[in-house]
């Protein structure tokens, strides 16, 4: 299996980053520095260029530095296919993206070519937080792995927003509302089907990952809980049946926007029974499962971005994770304030991050 490799990264005006230029190692890369100097922002810039979403939940304007007119990111990525060039420019009111100098025509073409998996402190909420975060995990995988999923997700969101606007009118027009039932059911049922298959595939991947981080692999279960059918006809009928309730609540209740991925640990909800340490390990296992599924579906090993991993895992699990990463052959970027962490990644290239600038790697 061929790993994806970021061969060049240039960032300027993104958060506090100024004229950052990196030639990363194809293996391990350690970003060292004190908190608040821009280490996480480098990972965020990489992942934003690859996914067009901030894993920290930031809006576009929040990503542009206070004194910058625009944020710019360049990624050059090598992999099983010919090298690709990703360029991103964020203005206060605009976003320009190109792939090899052209506007990408298909979502899967764009997202699969620079697939990244991010593990960061906020990932504890994958286990304990709201369903939205687990839906986002499923969608993040599927836009990279399933042709047409990104377009269906976008079309569903557009139809859902339009229907909800009509539902909130003072005197709702039911015929106008029902006009959106067809696109909702068409695209929504496609999302449900794809997510259901993925949830099934994630179970063995998550169990493999739990074994890799030294937890019992048989204790975890993942079950997709859809609020609507994956059959378009049944989905359409359910929307019609629920119209009066939607009018009363002034929003659309049924659909993949309301679904969840239930995580159980030893037969009980993980958010309730898992300890803090188990929750950290479960969150990491979900991210490793993301990597394993993407590897299987895209035939390429994603880039792994580990933000402040030493604060989330003890030294033994951190060392075990790095050993696993080395065995996978994945390119990895690690942020840390502790130089000793770099010793757990033999041969890693080190970069020092200070006030949004990056010192030369140590080679």
Protein model, in words:
The structure is a single chain. The chain is α/β, with parallel strands linked by helices and 363 residues long. The protein has a 6-stranded mixed beta sheet, with helices on both faces. It has a 5-stranded antiparallel beta sheet with strand order 3-2-5-6-7. It is globular and about 65 Å long. Helices cover 45% and strands 21% of the residues. It folds into 2 domains: 1-115 and 302-363, P-loop containing nucleotide triphosphate hydrolases (Rossmann fold), CATH 3.40.50; 132-301, Up-down Bundle (Glutathione S-transferase Yfyf (Class Pi), Chain A, domain 2). Helix 6 crosses helix 8 (181-212). The protein has helices at 39-51, 60-63, 107-112, 125-128, 131-145, 149-167, 174-178, 181-212, 232-241, 243-249, 270-273, 276-298, 309-312, 315-328, 339-342, and strands spanning 2-3, 5-12, 20-22, 28-32, 71-78, 84-90, 95-99, 116-119, 220-225, 260-265, 268-269, 300-301, 303-307, 332-336, 349-354, 357-358. The mean pLDDT is 92. The relative contact order is 0.18. The two termini are 25 Å apart.
Q: What is the number of independent domains?
A: 2
Percent strand equals 15-25%
- Helices, by number, come to 15
- Tell me, briefly, the overall form: globular
Instruction: Tell me the distance between the termini.
Output: 25 Å
CATH topology of the largest domain: Rossmann fold
Number of strands: 16
* The CATH top-level class label of the largest domain: Alpha Beta
Profile the largest sheet.
6 strands, mixed
Oligomer: single chain
In terms of per-residue confidence, which ranges show pLDDT below 50 for 5 or more consecutive residues?
A: none
Give the mean pLDDT.
92
Order of neighbouring strands in the sheet with most strands: 8-13-14-4-15-16
Q: In which range does the helix fraction lie? A: 40-55%
Radius of gyration: 21 Å
What is the CATH homology-level superfamily of the largest domain? P-loop containing nucleotide triphosphate hydrolases
Class per helix and strand makeup? alpha/beta
CATH architectural designation of the largest domain = 3-Layer(aba) Sandwich
């Amino acid at each position: 299996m061929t790993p994806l490799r970021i061969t060049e990264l240039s960032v300027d005006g993104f958060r506090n980053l100024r004229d950052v230029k990196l030639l990363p190692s194809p293996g391990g890369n350690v970003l060292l520095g004190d908190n608040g100097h821009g280490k996480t922002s480098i990972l965020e810039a990489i992942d934003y260029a690859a996914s067009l979403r901030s894993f920290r939940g930031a809006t576009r304007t929040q990503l542009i530095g206070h004194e910058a007119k625009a944020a710019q990111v360049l990624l050059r990525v090598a992999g099983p296919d010919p090298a690709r060039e990703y360029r991103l420019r964020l203005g206060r009111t605009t976003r320009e993206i190109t792939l090899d100098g052209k506007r990408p025509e298909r979502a899967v073409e764009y997202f699969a070519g620079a697939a990244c998996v991010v593990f960061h402190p906020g990932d504890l909420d994958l286990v304990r937080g709201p369903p939205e975060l687990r839906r986002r995990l499923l969608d993040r995988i599927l836009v990279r792995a399933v042709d047409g999923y990104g377009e269906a997700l976008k079309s569903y969101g557009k139809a859902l927003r339009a229907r909800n606007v009509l539902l909130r009118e003072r005197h709702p027009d039911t015929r106008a509302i029902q006009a959106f039932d067809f696109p909702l059911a068409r695209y929504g049922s496609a999302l449900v089907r794809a997510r259901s298959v993925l949830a099934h595939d994630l179970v063995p991947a998550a169990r493999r990952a739990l074994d890799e981080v030294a937890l019992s692999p048989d204790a975890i279960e993942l079950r997709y809980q859809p609020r609507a059918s994956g059959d378009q006809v049944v989905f359409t009928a359910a929307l019609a049946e629920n119209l009066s309730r939607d009018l009363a609540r002034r929003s659309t209740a049924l659909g993949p926007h309301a679904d969840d991925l239930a995580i159980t640990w030893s037969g009980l909800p993980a958010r309730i029974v898992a300890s803090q340490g188990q929750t950290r390990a479960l969150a990491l296992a979900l991210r490793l499962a993301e990597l394993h599924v993407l590897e299987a579906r895209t035939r390429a090993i994603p880039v792994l971005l580990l933000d402040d991993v030493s604060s989330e895992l003890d030294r033994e699990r951190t060392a075990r994770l790095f050993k696993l990463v080395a065995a996978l052959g994945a390119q990895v970027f690690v942020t840390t304030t502790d130089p000793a962490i770099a010793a757990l990644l033999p041969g890693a290239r080190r970069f020092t991050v200070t006030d949004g600038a990056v010192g030369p790697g140590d080679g």
